[in-house]
Amino acid sequence: MSSTPEESIPELGETEAVTGGPDTLHVYWLVGGSCDGCSVAATGATNPGVEDLMRGNVPHLPKLELHHPVLAMEWGDDYVEEMQAAERGERDPYAIVIEGSVPNERLVDEPGGYWIAQGEEDGDPVRMVDWLDRLAPDAAATIAIGTCATWGGIPSAEGNPTDAMGTTDYLGRDYRSVLGLPVINVPGCSPVGDNFIETVAHVLLYAADMGPLPELDDLGRPEWLFGETVHRNCNRGSYYEEGDFAEEYGSEKCIVELGCWGPVVKCNMPSRRNIDGVGGCMNMGGKCIGCTMPGFPDKFTPFFKKPPGTLVSGTSTKIIGGVMRRLRHYSMDKLETSRRWGGAGYGGDLYQWMHRRGSNYDERRYPHPGGEADD
Ligand code: FSX
């Protein structure tokens, strides 16, 4: 599919929301070129969990009926029949989730050949792109999970034999779902499961007329999740500010000089962490390799090389931050002395001396019972 000129693209939210507050939202999970890590990530979400949405546990949210190739209750023809029913308009409203990159099936010139298929009709495999063509136009929302589905990811790296691409590249920038939304992109390789489920929950709220339109940036990413860089929330950021860099792994200091791309990568991993507030790349000592970004992986390789610009930014930070760090240590030394230990009029010198000996108890005034006071 091709994109139309920019001026003809409908504005975000121009189309009406689904009305009437549906009780159930069917979700069809389509799989392209991927490692299945996105499914694993989604099932690891906890806030809420996918099982909370499926059981209708979250107040005001429609119950989610998930038709996933691994997790669906139906299988074989019944599984395919569900997707056919959606196409016939018998499962409205429904949403689709795309995991993995979309292959270019036009490259396949073998009769009956294909790159990726999901289910069979009349004994013939149904290509993933055909399901996308059949279900995307009437979907309430189309959500791409993971960097393969959003921007092409690893399958689209240099070489790219399947001409793998992201969902927006396939459907076109002018694509709008029934809710008036472009393809919603939740990147990450693999993504943070809570980022994805939270986005789904937001869409469900909007679909039920219970919440506002999800705020998306110009690449279709949830603004509240991908509006900041890794660096902004990294717990090593203050080391960077003071020009204090790790020279080897295992250090708690800033790892930019070891090849971390955090200062220029949009991702909330340091604050949200990986699963249930635990883990996270930089939190665990790993550097950011830019897996949420459209340029991933090629623009970030080789991963163990310093990002360009590190020499300039690192050197200037070392000079300015180094001065700041020394001034801070000077202030810290002053502030680690209580007024009692160092203030005038409180016998300051004596208390400081006592304190340095390991006690601030004035034994000349309060000698040990039965003992001699120290000199
Ligand atoms: Fe891609 Fe998903 Fe990377 Fe894997 O399935 S985003 S290869 S970690 O996880 O599609």
Question: What's this entry about, in short?
Answer:
The protein contains 14 helices and 7 strands. It is an alpha/beta fold and 375 residues long. Helix 1 crosses helix 7 (193-207).
Please give a structural write-up:
The chain contains 14 helices and seven strands. With 375 residues, the chain is an alpha/beta fold. The chain folds into three domains: 214 residues, NADH:ubiquinone oxidoreductase-like, 20kDa subunit (Rossmann fold, 3-Layer(aba) Sandwich), CATH 3.40.50.700; 109 residues, Irregular (Cytochrome-c3 Hydrogenase, Chain A, domain 2); 35 residues, no CATH class. A hairpin with a 2-residue loop joins strand 4 and strand 5. Helix 1 crosses helix 7. The N terminus is likely disordered. It binds ligand FSX. The site of ligand FSX has 14 residues, from helix 1 and helix 5.
- What class, by secondary structure content? alpha/beta
CATH class label of the largest domain: Alpha Beta
Topology-level CATH name of the largest domain: Rossmann fold
SSE ordering = EHHEHEEEHEHHEHHHHHHHH
Number of DSSP helical runs: 14
In what order do the strands lie side by side in the largest sheet?
2-1-3-6-7
Q: Could you give the count of β-strands?
A: 7
Level-2 CATH architecture of the largest domain: 3-Layer(aba) Sandwich
